[in-house]
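Researcher: We plan to redesign the surface later, but first we want a full-length starting point. C-alpha cells attached.
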C-alpha cells in the first residue's frame, strides 16, 4: 500500500467510477445498484472476509474482468471491456485505464478496510 497522495487519487477514482453502486464510503448502498434491486458488496470488508489479508491481485483481476464471476449475470461491469469513463490525474485519455491510476484505486480500497 502506498502513501496518502496515492490513496487520495484512488479515492477520486473511486468516487467517479465505483461510488454510484458501492456507495460513497464503499459500504454497498449506491442508488443505481439499489434501483436495479441489487446490493453491491461492502468493499470495506474484503480484508475481513479473507482472514485479515487484502487480496490485491484477486481484487485487481475481478475488477478488470479477468476472473469468472460467481454470478454470470452480475451487475458489476467488466472494466476491461467497457473502459472507465473519466480523465485521471496521471494523464490517461477518456476511457483509458492507466496502471498508476488503477494501482491508486487498489491502494484506496486497501486503505478503507475495516
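Model: Full-length starting sequence:
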Amino acid at each position: 500500500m502506498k502513501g496518502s497522495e496515492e490513496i487520495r487519487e484512488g479515492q477520486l477514482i473511486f468516487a467517479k467510477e465505483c461510488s454510484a453502486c458501492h456507495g460513497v464510503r464503499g459500504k454497498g448502498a449506491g442508488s443505481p445498484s439499489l434501483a436495479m434491486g441489487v446490493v453491491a458488496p461492502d468493499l470495506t470488508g474484503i480484508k475481513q472476509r479473507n482472514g485479515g489479508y487484502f487480496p490485491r491481485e484477486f481484487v485487481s483481476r475481478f475488477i478488470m474482468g479477468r476472473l469468472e464471476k460467481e454470478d454470470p449475470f452480475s451487475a458489476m461491469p467488466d472494466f476491461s471491456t467497457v473502459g472507465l469513463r473519466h480523465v485521471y490525474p496521471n494523464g490517461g485519455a477518456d476511457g483509458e485505464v492507466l496502471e498508476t491510476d488503477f494501482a491508486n484505486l487498489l491502494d484506496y480500497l486497501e486503505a478503507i478496510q475495516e
